[in-house]
Design a protein that fits this description.
Helices cover 47% and strands 19% of the residues. A five-stranded mixed beta sheet has the order 1-4-5-2-3. The chain is built from six helices and five strands; from the N terminus they run αβαββαααββα. The protein has a single domain, classed as Beta-Lactamase (2-Layer Sandwich), CATH 3.30.450. By secondary structure, it is α+β, with helices and mostly antiparallel strands.
């Protein structure tokens, strides 16, 4: 059964509310990044992954056969998270539900922002968003879900389908 936009939006909101860190180190970024790479192999498609903490890239990896274009997608999707403190997929669904153009409503350039799933905020309990994890190379839902699944494992959280 195909889920409607409202249902997907509520799922993503729940993920964002639950996938919060007590602290986040560069070593955590390394562990999560390597875990995402391992899980991505099941898709048999090349991905690029980027993790930014406090404005610094602390993890970046591009599988063989990725293109430099994926780094541009990563930057554009990351910009959405850093601007709104919500995942890029949430912002896409939210604007679809409102039946409006993200770019017009927020006066955002499509050259700088991309509301495609695959960028997820790194939130610290009591502090808020301190960074972003971004994946590029799969469908937007798969990019998003890959991050969510690995964060859920890392934080020992489970979500019902």
């Amino acid at each position: 059964m195909e889920k409607n936009i409202q249902t997907k939006l509520e799922e993503v909101r729940k993920q964002e509310e639950n996938l919060i860190f007590k602290s986040f180190s560069n070593h955590d970024a390394l562990e999560i990044g390597l875990s995402i790479i391992e899980s991505a192999k099941a898709f048999d498609k090349p991905i690029a992954i980027n993790i930014v903490k406090n404005g610094q890239t602390v993890f970046h990896y591009a599988m063989d056969h990725t293109a430099p274009d994926q780094d541009i997608w990563i930057k554009r999707k990351s910009n959405v998270v850093l601007r709104h403190h919500s995942s890029s997929y949430f912002m896409r669904l939210y604007n679809e539900m409102k039946n409006r153009s993200y770019y017009d409503f927020y006066s955002a350039s499509p050259y700088e922002f991309a509301i495609h799933g695959g960028a997820f905020p790194i939130k610290i309990e009591g502090s808020g968003v301190i960074g972003v994890i971004t994946v590029s190379g799969l469908s937007q839902e798969d990019d998003h879900n890959l991050i969510v699944e690995e964060l859920a494992k890392f934080l020992n959280k489970m979500f019902e389908e």
